[in-house]
Specification:
Layout (H helix, E strand, L loop, with lengths): L2 E7 L8 E6 L2 E8 L2 E6 L13 E3 L2 E3 L6 E3 L5 E3 L8 E2 L1 E4 L2 E6 L1
This protein binds FE2/S2 (inorganic) cluster (FES).
Amino acid sequence: NTNWVDALAADDLPDDDVLGVAVAGRDIAIYTVGEGVYATDNLCTHGNARLCDGFLEGHEIECPLHQGRFDVRDGRPTCAPVTEALRRYPVRIAGGRVFVGID
Ligand code: FES
């Protein structure tokens, strides 16, 4: 059962960039790529780095610490040294708010 948690106003979404937000006590990274909005855990699976401090290029987020990369659409690792996928979360936009689906 998905619990949709209000994360931020749609107007506060960045343009083709990443933002860190606290959602239901979790550190979540929200990404926008064109019209697409995606969410994953913000903490890199390789070490103690927040992906919101990294660099978004197309659908890939580059970790600021060792430059590992993930695809923000599904969380899969796309560049070493990361090997473990990021948890991703579904996103829904309604009534000008962005909701993140948490199990
Ligand atoms: Fe992210 Fe090492 S901590 S690539």
